[in-house]
Amino acid sequence: SPFAAPKRIQVHRKVQGTDTVLTFDYKAFQSGTEPGNNFPLLSGDVIIVPERGLFDEIDGQVAGLPETAAL
Fold it and tell me: Where are the beta strands (DSSP E) in 16-69?
């Protein structure tokens, strides 16, 4: 979805009774640049895909800014 923040996905998991948050970068997974970022989902995991922010990148461009704008 163009509204998702694929670099900030969270997996909430209980590990020995303690809540743990794992982060997952879908863009890195998709490109194969961070193979250690891939972990199996377990029963009970809760996946949260946050909405992208105004200045998150979309396909290499910063959303909300014209292509010629510099940060």
Answer: 18-24, 46-48, 57-58, 61-62
> Whole-prediction pTM value?
0.66
How far is 31 from 26, CA to CA, in rounded Å? 9
Identify the DSSP state of 53. Answer: P
What is the per-residue pLDDT across 2-47, written as a single tens digit (0 to 9) for each? 788 888 899 999 989 999 999 999 888 888 887 777 889 999 999 9
CB distance 22 to 8 below 8 Å = no
CB 4 within 8 A of CB 51: yes
C-alpha 17, offset from chain centre: 25
